[in-house]
Design brief:
The protein is mostly helical. The chain is built from seven helices and no strands. α1 runs antiparallel to α7 and α2 crosses α3.
Length: 126
């Protein structure tokens, strides 16, 4: 893989991780996408594209969402989503996995399936 290809792959992995964290935080807080779209003055469709890795989120948008929702932006930017959900389950002493856990996992699988296709759409790959 060329240097340019590695750079694109790293960008994709970062976009997927951020999208997964946003989905995790949103679903765990039982918020609709429309509410987070309001936080960044975007339409529901524009926000939905961020979670699908069609568009990348700007730092200002991410900070706005985190500030309005009381979320830690460093967790979203640097944290591993799988570690985050494990910590939350431990922290809340959840014996049986809640329904929202399965919603999160389902959404993550959709991100994994569609992110690469959406990310590279219209881009040349060496």
């Amino acid at each position: 893989m060329s240097r340019k290809g590695r750079k694109n792959w790293n960008n994709l992995e970062i976009s997927k991780r951020i999208a997964k964290q946003l989905v995790l935080h949103r679903l765990w807080s039982e918020l609709p996408q429309r509410e987070l779209a309001k936080d960044i003055n975007a339409t529901f469709q524009q926000y939905q594209k961020l979670e699908k890795c069609i568009n990348r989120i700007f730092a200002e948008q991410l900070i706005s969402i985190c500030k309005n929702r009381g979320w830690d932006s460093s967790v979203i930017l640097q944290g591993n989503p799988e570690d985050t959900i494990r910590e939350w389950i431990k922290e809340f002493n959840i014996d049986a996995l809640p329904h929202k856990y399965y919603k999160v996992i389902n959404q993550w699988e959709m991100i994994d399936k569609s992110a690469e296709k959406n990310y590279y759409r219209g881009k040349e790959i060496e």
